[in-house]
């Protein structure tokens, strides 16, 4: 029985490691600054009271690619930010959004 549990734990470890995304304090700080400057006018300060925009507090944590696509290419009323933000800045925004 112990062997089965150990085998299951080891087989799940890579999937769990992929889900946990360690963000640096600098990424979070950069993401917060970018959010305040570029995102908060529509999505609300600290993602509170999103004036008709998507409530980012409800963004699915397992859909990073969807987030990156929406930020870089735009979506519905949201403009594309891909020409204005570097990839590492988009990643910092992702870190900020899913960490709050």
Q: Which residues form runs of ≥5 with pLDDT under 50?
A: 1-19
Helix/strand-derived category reads mainly alpha
CATH architecture: Orthogonal Bundle
Kindly estimate the percentage of residues that lie in beta strands according to DSSP. Answer: under 5%
Number of strands: 0
| Largest sheet descriptor | none
CATH topology grouping: Cytochrome Bc1 Complex, Chain D, domain 2
**What is the share of helical residues?**
55-70%
**What is the total number of structural domains?**
1
CATH superfamily: Cytochrome c-like domain
The mean pLDDT is 84
**Globular, elongated, flat, extended or rod-shaped: what is the shape?**
globular
Radius of gyration using CA atoms only:
17 Å
Order of helices and strands: HHHH
Helical segment count:
4
Distance between the termini: 39 Å
Q: For the record, what CATH class applies?
A: Mainly Alpha
Describe the secondary-structure layout.
Layout: H1 2-19, H2 25-43, H3 64-73, H4 87-99
How would you explain this protein's 3D organization?
By secondary structure, this protein is an all-alpha fold. It has one domain: Cytochrome c-like domain (Cytochrome Bc1 Complex, Chain D, domain 2), CATH 1.10.760. Helix content is 60%, strand content 0%. The protein has four helices and no strands. Helix 2 packs across helix 4. It is globular. The N and C termini lie far apart (39 Å). The relative contact order is 0.16. The N terminus is likely disordered.
